[in-house]
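Supplementary notes for students who missed Thursday's class. We covered one full example, reproduced here. Read the sequence, then the structure, then the short commentary at the end.
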Amino acid sequence: MLSSSLTTVKRLPVKKRLCFLLKLVCFVTSVFIFCEFLIYYVVIFQCQWPEVKGGAHMSKKDISTSVIKAIILADTHLLGEIKGHWLDKLRREWQMERSFQTALWLLQPDIVFVLGDVFDEGKWSSPQAWANDVRRFQKMFKYPVSTELVVVAGNHDIGFHYEMTAYKVNRFEKVFNFTSGKLLTRKGINFVLVNSVALEGDGCAICQSAEAKLTALSHKLNCSQQKPNHSSQRCGDVEKLPASEPILLQHYPLYRKSDAECSGEDSASPEEKNIPFREKYDVLSREASQKLLWWFHPRLILSGHTHSACEVLHAGKIPEISVPSFSWRNRNNPSFIMGSITPTDFSLQKCFLPYESRVFTIYCAAGALLVILILAHFQLLTPPFYFAQRLISKHKAV
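Structure (token representation):
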């Protein structure tokens, strides 16, 4: 009987240690699950689709059936085998995958647009490296049959103009079913996909082909909208398209001097805002920009490339939204655009993803609390009340 009691006393500290260890494991696991999984639901759940007006003649029911819910993101820059470190790949791709899949599950968009620079090394990747990058992208950005994914080419996908070749363009087009001057019409809404890298204006074969497709599409759209400069004779044999003014989707922004007039928490930093943009590198040339505006008379332009947010009015009435990068490698506060679009109107709302600095702060606070708990458990940290009690007892003794 006595020996049994002694054994129980000896085992008690072991049980306490195991119980404490289990609590620590649960604490660490909970913090990890929140920071790497649940936080995306908490943040994106706060995003709501913007409301859009359909006109006085349309009821709410008509609006709900005619509206397209679109998510627009840009510059994912999936790292390649040359410059991409495995740990950087693992971290950034997990963040983007969780954000995208959470957004699809919570928001259930009809269509998702990716505005170029899907890959970081597409401009020089080998066939095998390209295949590996494509496979990773398809895993990260998988989508249900109820959602459509549309991808536009960027300079990191097919190279800058001086690096762009027919081989690189063709392999991108084959994977993403993309061609410059492609018209996408959904619910009477016209989306025009533009290979902005090919708008160099120097007469190269790829540039000539891209411009020819754009001018032909411009003619069709203008005939369908019955523009004054398009006579009925010129439009006699032209395929009729929905009369809705188009929305341009491209990688390069139209020409602007800099980001000096841009505002918002995800705009460029004060140091970067006043750096002048280079034509055909940071933005399209003045000539190419004027051509697109003249050809299509768009009601909205969506672009990427700069990694920062900006809103510009062209010709005093045509808005262009530069969509910031979707990757934490380029920003501390990535985001995407949510658009409710009808044939006659649109409304846009930005949805921010978790700030990486806040996730890091949570990890640091949890680590500090963990250290305190361990020190207190092993009585290596003297509680303040115990120190005060010792002072009081010494004073009484005197």
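Commentary. The chain has one domain: 31-225+238-358. The two ends are 47 Å apart (CA to CA). If anything here is unclear, bring it to office hours.
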